[in-house]
């Protein structure tokens, strides 16, 4: 059966409902909450602070270090195995790569900025939600940044090119492609591009175009979350 109508009734270019807040955890240097559909991420930032072990120190600039963690009962599918597994290690690495182009730690040599991303609830798009939350949290911590980073997934289910697929779409019994994208809005640079599945070149171009267009809405929501926290000059 051809996939002609999205299971949740959305249009191909329509995002799930989004909620974003800055400064949600008092004891962190910066923090944020980002929820898209039924995928929720908390990001906490600590630092800049002294980096250990010493051999990792860089006398020219600080280090950005990210850790992505899904809680055991957060997934829509099987129970998530507790601990730091191969998937969380890979997503932690790509999160660092996505955020590094906008973070300037040249004034903090031999130091580290730690970003912890915890997901209590997931329904697809977890790495993208984590990146969006981390970007807000870094800004909330006052870390020097050139811009925020916006992330979302585009893709294809059967013959439909779309954005922000949910778990049911990713698991749909058809040819499915999932394409996480991270963008720096001020320069239109892509800091993350991955793909899981098979897609034609023409459909990939359509998915990228649709995804990049949808990032504008997320960017406005991220900025609004920061403005809401600091409205009136209050932290």
Explain this structure.
With about 240 residues, this protein is α+β, with helices and mostly antiparallel strands. The protein is built from four helices and ten strands. The protein has a single domain (about 20-225), classed as GHMP Kinase, N-terminal domain (Ribosomal Protein S5, domain 2, 2-Layer Sandwich), CATH 3.30.230.70. The strands form two sheets. A five-stranded mixed sheet has the order 1-2-3-5-4. A hairpin with a 2-residue loop joins strand 2 (about 30-35) and strand 3. About 45% of the residues are buried.
> What are the segments in which pLDDT stays under 50 over at least 5 consecutive residues?
none
SS class: alpha+beta
Number of helices: 4
Mean pLDDT comes to 92
Q: Can you tell me the CATH class?
A: Alpha Beta
Q: In percent, how much strand structure appears in the residues?
A: 25-35%
Radius of gyration: 18 Å
- Order of strands in the sheet with the most strands? 1-2-3-5-4
The CATH architecture designation is: 2-Layer Sandwich
Domains, number: 1
Helix fraction by DSSP (H/I, runs of at least 4) = 25-40%
- Ends distance: 53 Å
- CATH superfamily assignment? GHMP Kinase, N-terminal domain
Instruction: Please count the beta strands (DSSP E, at least 2 residues each).
Output: 10
- The SSE order reads EEEEHEHEEHEEEH
The biggest sheet, with number of strands, parallel, antiparallel or mixed sense and barrel status, is: 5 strands, mixed
